[in-house]
Amino acid sequence: MRRSNPERAHCSRVVAASLALIAAVVVLAASAIVFFGCRGRESRNRDKVVIGLSIATDTFIIERWNKDIKIFTGAARDRGADVIVQLSAGGTKEQIAQIDFLLARGIDVLVVIPHDSEMLSGIVRKARDAKVPVIAYDRLVMGTPIDAYVSFDNHEVGRLMAKALRAAVPRGRYLIVNGSKRDNNSYIVREGLWEVLGPAIARKEISIVDEIWLDEWSSDEALMRIGAVLDRTTNIDAISCANDQIAGAAVQLLSEYRLAGKVAVVGQDADISACQKIVEGTQLMTVYKPLARLAERAADIAVSVALGNVPPPDLTVDNGSGTPIPYYVEPPYAVTRDNIDELVIRDGFHSAEDVYRNAADR
Ligand code: GAL
Q1: Distance (Å, whole) CA 203 – CA 30
Q2: Phi, psi dihedrals of residue 321, rounded to the nearest 5°
Q3: With 0-12 CB in 10 A as exposed, 13-18 as middle and 19+ as buried, what is 246?
C-alpha cells in the first residue's frame, strides 16, 4: 500500500534524515578507522621528517656514542627534522622492542646502531614493509636489504692499527684482542689488521701469542680475558685492542706487571683516557674517527632518504642480503704522540688541557 502525500512527505523526510544519519555515521566511521586505525601507528603525514634513532646496549658506557647521539640529533634538527631517540639497557630483544615502539610512533626513517648485526633482519623487514627506510649507522645490519650504511672505513681502522704496531715492534710476540662477536665491525677491523700482519707472520717476523674474541664490548670481559693470557705469559711485545676501552684494560693489567709503556698497545676511538695515555707513553696509538663528519652526514642522508631521495653513495657493500647496500664512507686517522695536537686537539675533539692533564711535559 503506497503511503499518502503528508505521510509520504513525512516518510521522505524520515528517509532523508535517516540517509543523512547513515551518511554521517559512515563518514564518522571512516574517519574513526583512519584515526584509530593509525592509532597503532601515529600518522606520518606531517610536514616535519621524524627520525627514529635506535641505539644498542653496549654503547652506553662507551664515550664516543654520547658524542654521536648529540651531534646527530643536533644536525638532524638543523635540517628541520625531529629525532626520537631510543636507548636500551638490554640486549637485542630490547632493541627490537625499541624499534617496534618507534614504528608505532610513526617515524619516517629508522637509523639504527645494532647491538647484534645478525639479529635485526626481522624487525628491519617489518619497518621497510611499512615503507619506513632503514639506515645502519656505524655498524652494518646483516642479512636483509637496507636503504643505506653510513660508517668509517673499518678495514682502514684495522690496517692503521697493524701498521703502527709493525713500526714499533717489527719483530716480536703479539696478542690480538678483537671486539664483540655480535658487531660486524669487529670482523671488518680484523680483516684490515690481518691484511698487514699476515705477511709478517708468514715471514716469521712476528708470532701471535693468542687471539681473543669478546662476547660484548666490555672492559670487564677484556680485563678477565687479557688477564688470563698475562697470567700464562708476560712475554708479549705488542697488544692490538679493538677499541680504547679494551686498550685501557690492557694498560691497567700491564701496569700491574710493571710493563705499562714497555709493551706497545693500540686502540680505536680516541677516547680521552687513551689520548692521555698516548701523551704519557703507556699507549702507542689510537684510531681517530671524526664523529662530527659521520653524524652530520648520517643526518643529511636520513632526511634525504625520508623524503625519497637516496644520495649517490661512495661505494656499495654486501651485507649478505644479496642486495648491494649504498655505503657512505668516512676516513679514519692514526693518532700518536706526534700528531695528536694537530688531529685531535685542533679538531676540537678534546681540549689540550684534558689530553695533557697528567703528562709530565707537553
Ligand atoms: C664499534 C665502533 C667502535 C667502538 C665499538 C664499541 O662498532 O665502530 O668505534 O666504539 O663499536 O662500541
Answers
A1: 75
A2: -95, -5
A3: buried
For residue 317, the SS3 value is strand
Residues found in the chain: 362
CA of 243 to the centre of ligand 1 (A): 7
Pocket of ligand 1 (CB under 6 A): 58-59, 62, 64, 138-139, 179, 183, 185, 217, 243, 268-269
Rounded distance, CA 213 to CA 189, Å? Answer: 12
Task: Pick the most confident of 7-16, 81-90, 286-295.
Answer: 286-295
Strand 264-266 and strand 50-55: pairing? unpaired
CA 354, CA 1: separation in Å to the nearest integer?
98
Q: What is the pLDDT of residue 207?
A: 98
Helix (H, G, I), strand (E, B) or coil at 362: coil
Residue 126 has pLDDT above 60, yes or no: yes
| Ligand 1 geometric centre to CA of 219 (Å) | 13
Verdict on whether the full-model pTM lies above 0.90: no
Question: C-alpha grid cell for residue 200?
Answer: 709478517
Q: How many CB atoms neighbour CB 128 within 10 A?
A: 16
> Would you say residue 3 has pLDDT above 50?
no
